[in-house]
């Protein structure tokens, strides 16, 4: 049995996504600040306890935001905690599957390059289909509402997975 997922209306997928993405970014910024502060304190204490030998480990701090975004985008939730809180999920643009690790890396690199060049390139979101930013376009991803993805999930018992409870 071949199950073909229906393609939803673009308006249903992307209604309110831009506003939600902005607020999700601020939530992620706060979470990253807390993670960075905690890690900085731990590394500072480690550096003092090792009489300065541990201070070179502070060099990992600039990589924390990159790892944060890549691991959450390529992970099972396909969204950062801020995106999850606001009902967003990142999917591949062609088949709405979860992003690959390579797509997550490309998206994160282009996102940070966009921020480094004043962030004005993020305004591309206002003129693209499916409200995609530059890093979405380059990596082949799209950010959609989680509620809009519900009709796209295969029915329970699809494939070789039987429906019902295994304990019944």
Description of the molecule:
This protein has 168 residues and is mainly α. The chain contains seven helices and two strands; from the N terminus they run H-H-H-H-E-H-H-E-H. It has a two-stranded antiparallel sheet. Residues 157-161 and 163-168 have low confidence and may be disordered.
Helix content: 40-55%
Straight-line distance between termini: 26 Å
Widest sheet: strand order? 1-2
Radius of gyration: 20 Å
What global shape is seen?
A: elongated
Largest beta-sheet characterization: 2 strands, antiparallel
Care to give the gist of this entry?
The protein is 48% helix and 6% strand. It has 168 residues and is mainly alpha-helical.
């Amino acid at each position: 049995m071949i199950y073909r997922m229906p393609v939803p209306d673009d308006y249903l997928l992307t209604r309110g996504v831009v506003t939600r993405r902005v607020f999700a970014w601020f939530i992620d910024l706060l979470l990253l600040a807390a993670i960075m502060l905690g890690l900085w304190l731990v590394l500072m204490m480690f550096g003092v306890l090792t009489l300065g030998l541990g201070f070179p480990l502070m060099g990992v701090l600039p990589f924390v935001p990159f790892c944060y975004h890549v691991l959450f985008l390529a992970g099972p939730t396909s969204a950062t905690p801020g995106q999850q809180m606001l009902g967003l999920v990142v999917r591949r643009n062609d088949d709405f599957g979860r992003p690959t690790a390579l797509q997550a890396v490309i998206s994160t690199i282009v996102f940070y390059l966009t921020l480094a060049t004043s962030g004005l390139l993020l305004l591309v979101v206002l003129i693209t289909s499916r409200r995609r930013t530059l890093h979405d376009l380059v990596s082949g991803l799209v950010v959609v509402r989680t509620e809009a993805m519900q009709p796209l999930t295969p029915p329970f018992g699809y494939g070789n997975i039987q429906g019902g409870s295994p304990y019944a």
